[in-house]
Known about the structure:
The structure holds 2 protein chains of 2 kinds. Chain A is of the alpha/beta class.
Amino acid sequence: MPEQKATTAVRIADELSSCGVRLVASLPDNWLMDVIETIRRDGRFIHVPVNREESAIGLCSGAYMGAMGSAALMGASGFMTVIYALTKINYTYEIPLLLLATLRGAAGDHHKHHISNGLYLLPVLEAISMPYQIIDDRDDVGLISRCYRHTRTYSRPMVVLFTRDLLRGRH
Amino acid sequence: MNYLECFRAIARHRTNEVVITSAGNSGQAWWAATGDSVASFYLDASMSLSTMFASGLALAQPDLRIWAFMGDGAFCMNPGMLMIERELNLPNLTHFLVSNRVYGATSNAALPNFAQNDYAAIARGMGLQRIFEFRKLDALERGLSQMTAANAPGHTFVVLEVEPFTASEQALEQPPFNGTELKYRFGRHLEAVLGCDVFGYRV
């Protein structure tokens, strides 16, 4: 893998480990493949590939009740399918959860099928009052820990959104 | 087999297991059978995620024995959950699939393909090996003794074929707690029995 992408993936993994994340449940997005592969190979994590994004919400929420730090990693399209699970489980029971997702459909994403995510992902987050943090630069990867801690303070979920420039390099 | 009698039988065989229930009838039935709001977590309206939630808990706490109930209405929304359960193969988790062939929480509305669905076969197709099916109460009583006495080598999947709730059973009380109260009751119980720190995070 190109050096810059490898470094970004490793920095994300290091940051997750530093804030106590042990379980990472994931579904793929092409932009995330280096991150997923890095986590899969990293003995600090239990990596669980899941069948759908809602399953990641359930797994990570249960892990929280077992005092295990966790994160759910997914693409923007997958995130758009989990609104019910987040609001029913994590809002109703006030269970913290860190999600990591791609900021699809923004400038730099040349895939037309992600236009809907560009139009609606951020408005959906705002509609459910869910805090988010966009990370566009490798020097800001440390914000992941800040967001993880915020989920514990806030007792609800928060999502970190990775841009294409962060994960794949500017083009 | 009668839904409530089935749950009462399971409750009689319970020792130190914590319990996760699914939406609707399973929560009502477990509450009616046990009145437990400390070592049971009622994951209401979870729409197929009760065993995923239980899997996360079981993964985090290998010494904790967990029973998770799920209706077949919820199961049909996400049968692929069994792929994850098989891959994790957690010996401390038992998945009870409560098959009443209807969406019990919504006035017993019809379930798609209800007459043909073979849940044990689906589980076998996903590679699960420790599968039990019970259609009669006496068989359940015998089987529960066998199941709970053995050290499970891996994940256990149990299909309970029950009758849908009657109109009077549908009126059974829902566990009378809001979500955050349940979270703290259950989490404090886990902290006490496991010595772990669920809520101890401080900024």
